[in-house]
Amino acid sequence: MLYGIALLVFALDQLIKWMVRSHMTPGQLVPVLPPWVDLDYIQNPGGAFSILPHHTWLFILVAFVVIAAVIYVDIRYKPSPSIRIALGLVLGGALGNMSDRIFIGKVTDYVYLQFIHFPIFNLADVCIDAGVILLIIRTFWQGKKENLSNHEDDK
C-alpha cells in the first residue's frame, strides 16, 4: 500500500508538472477559481517558500534521507495502515520534487492561492505536508490512547 500510494503520487505529480511545462510559459497566470485559486507556473530553484535558492544538491540530499527513512521505518517497524498511507504520501512527494531537481535543476510549482497570497506550490508539496500532518495526528492520537490506558491502570 505504501509504495502504491507513493507511485500514484509520483506519477500524478510528474504528469501535472509535465502538462504545466508543456502548456504554459513561466509566469503565466491562469485563473481556475477566481479570485481564490490560479495556476501560476514558476520554476523554484530553492526549497519551501524559495529558501536557499540554487542549493539543489542540499535538497536532493535531504530527499534521499527522507526516502531512506521512510523505507527503513516501513521495513523495521511494519507500521499500521494509517501510518503507511502517510509515509506513502511523503515518499511520493519527496520523489516528485527530487526528480525535478535532478532532471530539471528546479522544482515546477503551479498552484497559487490568490485569496491569501500563499507561495506557489505543487502536488508533491501538498502530499508531503498531508503525510507529515497525518503522522503528527496519528502520533498524538496514539500517545493519547496510551496515556488514557495507563491512567485506567491506576484505578
From TrEMBL:
GO molecular function, one term: aspartic-type endopeptidase activity
Main location: membrane
Membrane topology of the entry: Multi-pass membrane protein
Alphabetical list of PANTHER family matching this protein: LIPOPROTEIN SIGNAL PEPTIDASE
Domain of life, per lineage: Bacteria
Lineage: Bacteria, Bacillati, Bacillota, Bacilli, Bacillales
Main function: This protein specifically catalyzes the removal of signal peptides from prolipoproteins.
Similarity remark: Belongs to the peptidase A8 family.
Stated name of the protein: Lipoprotein signal peptidase
